[in-house]
Every structure is written in C-alpha cells, then in structure tokens.
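Possible regression after last week's pipeline update?

I re-ran a chain I had predicted before the update to compare outputs. Posting the input and the new output here so someone can diff against the archived version. Not blocking, just want to make sure nothing changed silently.
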Amino acid sequence: MRSPTYPAYLALAQSGELKRRAAMAVSALASCRVCPRDCQVDRLQDRHGVCRTGRFARVASCFPHFGEEDCLRGWRGSGTIFFAGCNLRCAFCQNWDISQECDGQVVTPEPLAEMMLELQEAGCHNINWVTPEHVVPQALEALALAAEQGLRLPIVYNTGGYDALESIQLLDGVVDIYMPDFKYWDPATAARLSKARDYPEVARQVIREMHRQVGDLVLDESGVARRGLLIRHLVLPNDLAGTRSIAAWLAQELSPDTYINVMNQYHPAGTVAQPDAPARYRDVARPTSTAEFRAALKVAGAAGLRRFDQRRAVLR
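New output (post-update):
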C-alpha cells in the first residue's frame, strides 16, 4: 500500500503526464463529451449543456467535512470541494440549489488549486471532489498546479455514478479512492426519476473500471481510507432502487469485499417535495421506512456483500 504521504497522482505529476492529461482533457471541451450526455457544445467558449457549466468549474463550498463516512472523515475531516451543477436531473435531489440551479462561484484553475492546498493545510485526510462528473478536465488542470505546489493528499472522486468511461480512464493513476453512487438497477426508474435511462448501464461500466483501477477499499492502521472503491447506495421507498440486484452484481462481478454504504436518509426533496409535484412521483413522496432500510441491508448481505459502512460518533 502506498504511504499516506504519496498518493497516486504524484508519480504522474513528476513525469509530466498529469499536466499532459489535463491539457488533453481541457482541449476536448471544445466539443464536450465529458459525461454521458454527449452535449458536444464548445465549453471553451463558455457555452454549456445539461450541466450548466462552461469553461471553468463552479464551486458551491469548500471545507473540512465531518459528515462523510468514518473512513473518509477520520478525526480531521474530509477536504470536500462541492462542485455546482450536475449531469443528472434527480427529481428528489436534496441539494437542488447546487445541482440544478448551479449556485456557486466560477473558479479558475489557480484558486481551485489553492482550495486543495488550504484543505491540506487545515489537516484534512484527503481531497474530496463532490459531483465532479462534468468538470473532470477542470479538476485535473487544478490538480496539476496543486501537485507542483506541494499537494500530497489522496483524491476522493465522489460521483453520482453517471460518468463517461473516457473520463474515468483519464483518472487512472490519479484517483486513489472512488466513491460512486449506484442509484438504480432499472432503466425505466432511472429515466423517470433522473432523466437518464442509460444510468444503470453507465454505472455498471464505470464502476467496473473504477474497481479495475483501485480494487477493494484499503484502510490504514487508523481506519482511514487510502485506496480503493466505496459504493454509496440510497435506499428508496418501495424498493425502487433495486437493492437486491445491485448488491448481487457488486458481489458477483466485482468482489464480495466491495465496501458499501447502504444509506437510509432518503426524504422527499426537490420537485418531489413540491405541493404540485406530478403524480408520477407519488411512490417517492415519503421517506424510506426503517423496515425498508433493514430489509435492504438484509438482502444486500444475502446477495453476498460483507463489508458495510458502520457509523461512529464524530471524532474531533
């Protein structure tokens, strides 16, 4: 296992490969296919497609986060950078202002690199890119600068799971910890709730590639994540997420030691929470019940998974 002070991207930074990949990714913004939407707009001219983000990333917030998984937050926090905008259109999104209204400040590469360095100075265990699917070129561009200036923290790629395979391949040897959602198994549900019928297929493809790159999650002697894959799966009402099928695929196609956080915090938000919400969202118009959450944990274990995230009190 790598030393905690030597994350994957440093070798690429030292060879010049990180800067080369960043330049290649940025140039491809001229006809953007950074994510599966394939909008093909010229983001170098500050145009945008579904993600509502042009040439430069927008950042909604940047801080040491103590609400992430224990293995990420440790006792000094996970250094989160929340990117505004999103390529999904989840009707129940709990961060609607950030993801759909794109609330955030436009940030050029230099200040984005400085944010990473400030999080390192604050003592964070890692740099956690939240919703980076649509800003992979911008994140790489800033990371190359930050590495030159002394960044030495592992990168966490915290994604909704709707990523372009080409983007994930660009991150091979850059990202130490992948943390994708696996939201839905059924294409019809993905189309209705997130306007992305191909989501299940895309998620399987990119999660397989993530696992190929980094393997199962590895923790250090203090229980802090250093490398590997961590899956997030939100339990939806009425078993709409397809927990059994997702768990079986992870166990059989990747590894029974795939680390998974089965989450119980679903509640109506976004469009679903509006008084005039369309009738097609009626089956997600209530929180997930305790019984549904317990049933999801049970079927995930029965499907073959054996590493589940367990929360402790915040360590400060």
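Follow-up from reviewer: compared with the archived run. Confidence is low (pLDDT under 50) at residues 1-5. Marking as no regression found.
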